[in-house]
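Tokens as discussed.
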């Protein structure tokens, strides 16, 4: 199974639309925070056809309105500041914060640990754990990036839009 990984949208709906177009072959979507406004949650849910897992970032504004949007939409789960998932037999941890993600990866309990926040797209092998920062949808540093994780191969790649 292919899983899309996005972070740090910061309400850039135009870039988000381009990223979502590239995720059509993904079965699930992991969103690592900094959506910012409720309308961004709506755009994600309408643009991705499959389950969406969300953790909060430090710039997510009206969390109550975002949560209500997610509840009305259906296939969106907001996990809070941390999520633990098992997808296709792979143990996955999600957080917005790089320090927490690095510690989780060093612990060796997960196959995949994902984080955002620093806007630096990178895939790193930490022991048996793959540590993934999909970069930023926003494009603050000039590029729009996301990641795709393949559960069968246990590999992730960064994609630049």
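Sequence:
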């Amino acid at each position: 199974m292919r899983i899309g990984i996005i972070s740090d949208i910061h309400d850039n709906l135009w870039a988000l639309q381009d990223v979502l177009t590239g995720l059509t072959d993904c079965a699930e979507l992991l969103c690592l925070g900094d959506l910012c406004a409720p309308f961004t949650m709506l755009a994600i849910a309408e643009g991705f056809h499959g389950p969406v897992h969300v953790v909060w970032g430090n710039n997510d504004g009206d969390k109550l309105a975002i949560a209500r949007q997610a509840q009305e939409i259906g296939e969106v789960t907001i996990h809070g500041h941390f999520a633990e998932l098992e997808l296709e037999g792979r143990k996955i941890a999600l957080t917005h914060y790089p320090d927490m993600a690095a510690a989780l990866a060093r612990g060796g309990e997960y196959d995949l640990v994902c984080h955002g926040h620093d806007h630096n797209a990178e895939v790193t092998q930490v022991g048996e754990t793959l540590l993934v920062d999909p970069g930023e949808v926003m494009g603050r540093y000039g590029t729009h990036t996301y990641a795709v994780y393949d559960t069968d191969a246990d590999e992730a790649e960064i994609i630049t839009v």
